[in-house]
Write a structure and sequence with these properties.
The chain is of the alpha/beta class and 303 residues long. The protein has 13 helices and ten strands. Pfam families: CHAT, EAD8.
Length: 303
C-alpha cells in the first residue's frame, strides 16, 4: 500500500480532515497553502473557487493520480504540510500515512528524515553553494542515502524562518552563513543584514519542538546560540570563534557523510573534526558538540 493507493475510507478521512481546517476553507488561502507545501505546480490543476470539500477531494485525487516526484509521492508533501496543523487522532492518522505505510518501502517519508539546509550570505563572500553541493554529494554516496531528504533554502530571509520549519518539519536543521560576535546568525531582513535575536530563535525551536533533533550552526561565534538551543534540541553543533570557509565546508561534508552512513552524531562529529586534521586546517578546536541534559550523542542516529 502507498499514498497513491488510498482506500476509499482513507481518502474520505483525509478529505474530512483537510476540509475542516480554516486555512483551507478560505478560497484566497488555498494558493498560499499549496506554495507552502511545495506544490505550487498544482495550483491550476483544480479550480480554486470550488466548494471546500469538492476542492479538497479533487486536489487529493489529482495528487494521488500524479504519482511520485523525486522518489516520493507528491501527496506526501501535502500530508507532511498538514501534520503540524493537526492533533490527536487526526495527527496520528496523518503520521501513519507518512510513516508506517512507507517504512516498508525502505524509505521513510516523514519529517524525521528531512535535512533542512538554510544559508544566508549577505556579503556574498562565502562559498555556500559549494558547501551545499558537497553535503548533497556526501549523502547521495552514503549507505543510508534513502533515509535522508535534503531540502535547500538559500538567501534566508527573516520572514522565512518560521515558514521553512513549519513547511518541512525537519529533524536536522543546518545553518550556513555568518554569525555575529554575540553568537547570533545573520540573515537578510528588508534587504539588510540582520542578527536574529538568540532568545527569539530559541523560543521558536521551543515552540516547534518535537521533530528537530539536531541543529548544526556552521557559522562563526555560534557557541552561545548552540548552548542555548541545546536546552531544547537533543544535539547542537556550534563554533567558539571565527572559522575559515574551507574548514566549515570540509567539516560539513565529513559530518554528513558519517551521519548518512549510519554513524551516531558523536562519531559523525569526530569524523568532521578529523577531516580538518587530515587537511591540516587549524580550526578543529573551534567546533563543539552540545547535548541536551540526559542525551547521549553516541545514541543519536538517523538510519
Amino acid at each position: 500500500m502507498s499514498l497513491e493507493q488510498l482506500t476509499m475510507e482513507e481518502f474520505r478521512r483525509l478529505v474530512q480532515i483537510v476540509s475542516a481546517m480554516p486555512a483551507w476553507q478560505r478560497i484566497d488561502n488555498r494558493q498560499f497553502n499549496l506554495i507552502m507545501a511545495g506544490l505550487e505546480h498544482f495550483i491550476k490543476c483544480v479550480n480554486l473557487d470550488l466548494d471546500t470539500q469538492v476542492y479538497v477531494g479533487s486536489l487529493i485525487r489529482a495528487l494521488r493520480d500524479y504519482g511520485s516526484d523525486d522518489g516520493q509521492p507528491v501527496l506526501a508533501k501535502l500530508v507532511r504540510y498538514l501534520v503540524p496543523m493537526t492533533s490527536g487522532e487526526d495527527r496520528q492518522f496523518l503520521e501513519t500515512l507518512l510513516g508506517e505505510r512507507h517504512r516498508q518501502q525502505g524509505r521513510i517519508l516523514s519529517g524525521d528524515n528531512v535535512l533542512l539546509f538554510l544559508s544566508a550570505n549577505p556579503g556574498h563572500d562565502l562559498h555556500l553553494d559549494r558547501e551545499m553541493r558537497l553535503v548533497e554529494e556526501a549523502i547521495r554516496s552514503a549507505r543510508c542515502r534513502g533515509h535522508f531528504r535534503l531540502e535547500k533554502q538559500v538567501d534566508l530571509q527573516l520572514n522565512d524562518l518560521q515558514s521553512h520549519l513549519l513547511r518541512f518539519n525537519p529533524s536536522i536543521v543546518h545553518f550556513s552563513g555568518h554569525g555575529d560576535a554575540q553568537g547570533s546568525i545573520v540573515v537578510m531582513n528588508d534587504r539588510r543584514s540582520y542578527s536574529v535575536p538568540i532568545d527569539a530563535l530559541c523560543d521558536l525551536f521551543r515552540i516547534l519542538k518535537g521533530s528537530v533533533r539536531l541543529v548544526v550552526l556552521n557559522s562563526c561565534f555560534s557557541q552561545p546560540l548552540a548552548e542555548r538551543l541545546a536546552e531544547v534540541v537533543e544535539c547542537v553543533i556550534g563554533t567558539s570563534a571565527a572559522i575559515g570557509d574551507e574548514s566549515a565546508i570540509e567539516f560539513a561534508k565529513a559530518f554528513y557523510r558519517g551521519l548518512a552512513n549510519g554513524e551516531s552524531v558523536h562519531i559523525a562529529f569526530a569524523l568532521g573534526v578529523n577531516q580538518l586534521d587530515l587537511k591540516h586546517y587549524a580550526d578543529r578546536d573551534k567546533l563543539h558538540l552540545f547535548t541536551r541534559s540526559g542525551v547521549d550523542a553516541k545514541q543519536i542516529v538517523f538510519c
